Amino acid sequence: MTTAVEAPAVRARSVTRRYGDRTVLHELDLEIRRGEFVALIGKSGCGKTTLLRTLAGLDALDGGDLTVPPSSTVVFQEHRLLPWWKVWRNVAINLPRGTARARARSALEEVGLGDHAEAWPVTLSGGEAQRVALARALVREPELLLLDEPFAALDALTRIRMHGLVRNLIARHRPAVLLVTHDVDEAILLADRVLTMREGRIAADHRVSAAARTRGDAAFVTLRAELLAELGVVEQ
Ligand SMILES: Nc1ncnc2c1ncn2[C@@H]1O[C@H](COP(=O)(O)OP(=O)(O)OP(=O)(O)O)[C@@H](O)[C@H]1O
């Protein structure tokens, strides 16, 4: 008996991107399956955001082939809510009129902000605004969710709460996910695979075991040390 293998949601083959005479993505290969959570770490300037922008269709390719699902959404480090629209309208942006309000409310409930639907963005804390940005991304049920350091500006406690929330939301919606982060712990705790990037290429691909997702477990400590070594970070 043969088992049908699902085609990956994202498939990049030899993807190249240049800015002027500088090559930022060098014949890069990448696959992400539906429901798979992939984290991408690497030194500043190695091309992480360029790759994410390319997958989002915000940057053109200079070479190679790219297959992405028809629906994708990006969540950025800053929430990018429109201040002149109430929270629910920010979430409902571009949804079909008839159901927009109800869908926005239910997405806000999913991120624990059902009672903030009528609030103005300016009245939200940083963590709340970022939860609204997540609701706005997920209400469209994208097949590809691109996260560009969405937790970087949050305090440590809020970040931990956001990790739990994102894990639950993603388990429910099952998009393919690419998270760009500078936080090695965050990458291990959230992702199924952690990729390290160097000079425009994927340098290594680490599958995260269930044990490694427990901070303090030996598997976590070992993987963390491996990733930091790959990034050239020596812990004092
Ligand atoms: N629009 C642009 N025009 C010219 N060069 C650019 C442009 N965008 C990015 N670059 C250059 O491409 C390289 C990769 O940038 P990119 O933002 O992808 O890196 P990154 O890995 O996301 O970095 P960081 O971790 O600091 O955000 C950098 O050297 C950057 O200066």
Automatic annotation (TrEMBL):
ABC transporter domain location: 10-224
InterPro entries (UniProt xref): AAA+_ATPase (IPR003593), ABC_transporter-like_ATP-bd (IPR003439), ABC_transporter-like_CS (IPR017871), ABC_transporter_ATP-bind (IPR050166), P-loop_NTPase (IPR027417)
Gene3D superfamilies assigned: P-loop containing nucleotide triphosphate hydrolases
The UniProt record lists the keyword Cytoplasm: no
GO molecular function terms noted in the UniProt entry: ATP binding; ATP hydrolysis activity
Keywords: ATP-binding, Cell membrane, Membrane, Nucleotide-binding, Translocase, Transport
UniProt KW Amino-acid biosynthesis keyword: no
Entry superkingdom: Bacteria
SUPFAM superfamilies: P-loop containing nucleoside triphosphate hydrolases
Descriptive protein name: Sulfonate transport system ATP-binding protein
Organism in which the protein naturally occurs: Pseudosporangium ferrugineum
